[in-house]
Structure formats: structure tokens, C-alpha cells
């Protein structure tokens, strides 16, 4: 019996261990492959371009990570980012801070609506965030007049997406600081423990007197704000607020979170592994672009979406098998 008691938690811990360390090993293997096959893969231009572009997805994935750890889902992040980009572009003539705060505020508003509908009306997160996804998309198109909104080049707003600080892209700095804060919150604060507790056993957490409603409100609000921030970077990086952008961003975010070992059922997750998942997916498409350049394959953006969906399905299947094996070992 004592031996069985020791072996149970060891078997049970295989899922987070595979998620956290497997994604890092896969990322390192992909980097080594790229460095071996492509001459300029580790060149400064390619590395900084990958980091600059994927910073937007990293921010969206960070918010999604906390949402999924509570056992929820946020399908509205892509549309929220598009709305944030439009609001930021419209406010960019007034300077950097109005554009930045406007985009984040728009995202925060969507996140709060999600939180209030889910916690106040007890609507399933899938349904609630699907509704706000449609609403945010419509609002972005209305504000933009169904066209891209050019940002102002007379202010410093574009530096947020195109500028560098100490030779490092500003969007990457922002993502790095956000992930550092997320790591501290998850691992060293009561809120982080509450997030995992809610995802692990919500009813038991509520019976223990822990603030389940407040935890959900905060994670959905943060997810919306981070998506809005991603939209601000989108507008600053490409010079326009884009109301039809963000399609499939929620898929990329969910894939990054799941690849990082966060269970879709909640209760288990890692901020650092989520970042590794973002970089892994980003490098996969970077390598596909290099292969297109070499002429070995020719994949359009539509095929890349197919690959992204297939990759997510594969990871979810593998994760479900690991969970089932862990349960059978109990």
C-alpha cells in the first residue's frame, strides 16, 4: 500500500511534466534543425522579426492561459484584438498614451462583459465568449467604417510596434514583462493558487469560502485587456487598425496553451511553458516560410491554418491519452 501511495502521485504528475518539459525540448530541437538547415535562421533579422511579430500572440496566449486554468475558454480574444487595434488607431493622432490606453480599455471592456455574463448570469464560457466575439467583431467594423484605419505617423505611437529598445523589439519587451508578471502571480500569490483551485475543483473551492467569482472576473478581464494590448501592437506594427484581423488568434492562443501542458479541463498550467508553446508554433510557421523560399514546398496562408488546426488536434489527443493513463494508474 505504501508503495502504491508513492507511485500514484508520480504517475499523476506525468501530464504537467510532459507538457512543460516536452515543449521546451521540442522548441530546442526545432531551433537546432533551423540553424542546421537555413543559413540565416539564427541571424539577427530573422530572430528579431519572429520575436516582434509573435509578441502579439504571446500576449493573447497569456490571458488565455489563466482562463483555461480556471476551466474556462475565451473565444473572443481575436475579435477583441481587432477592436483594440481600431480604437488605438483612431486615438493615435492624440499620442502614444491615448492610443495605448484606448486599445487596452476596449479590450478590458470586452473582458469585463465576459466576466459579468459568466459569473453573474451563469452562462457557459463557450457561449458567453462566442457572443462577445461576434459583438466585438461588429463593433470593430462599425468604428472602422468597414475598412482599415491608418494610424498617425505624426506622433510616437508607431514606436510601440516598430521601435527597438536596447536593440530588442519593444513588443517583445512588453510580452517579456507581461510573462514575468504572470509567472509571479501564478507561482507566488494567493490569486495564482485560487486560479488553479477553481480549475481543479470549483465546487469544492466555493465550499471552502474562496472567492471563485472574483477569480473568474479577474482572469477574463485580464484576458480582454491583454488582447486589447495585442491589438494596440498590431496597429502600431502594421500602421493601421484592422477590423477583420484576429481571425484564428483564439486558435493560436489555445494551441499555445495546450502545447504548454495546460489542461483544457483546468487546474494545471504553466506560464513559462505557454510562452514556449507560442515560440514553438511561431517557429513552425517561420520554418514553413523558409521552405517556401527554398522552393521545396509552397504553402499558402490557408494551408498554414490547416496545419495549425491539425497540430492543435494532435496535441489535444496526446494530452487526453496522457490524462487517461494517469487516471488508470490511480
Description:
This protein has 330 residues and is mainly α. It contains 14 helices and four strands. It has helices spanning 2-12, 14-37, 44-69, 77-91, 96-120, 125-144, 159-162, 170-188, 190-200, 202-207, 212-238, 249-259, 271-294, 301-328, and strands spanning 149-150, 164-165, 168-169, 240-241. The protein has a two-stranded antiparallel sheet. Strands 2-3 form a two-stranded antiparallel sheet. The longest helix has 28 residues, at 301-328. It is globular. 45% of the residues are buried. Residues 1-12 have low confidence and may be disordered.
Which outline best applies? globular
In total, the number of strands is 4
Quote the average pLDDT.
Answer: 86
Main sheet, how many strands, which sense, barrel?
Answer: 2 strands, antiparallel
> pLDDT below 50 for ≥5 consecutive residues: which ranges?
1-12
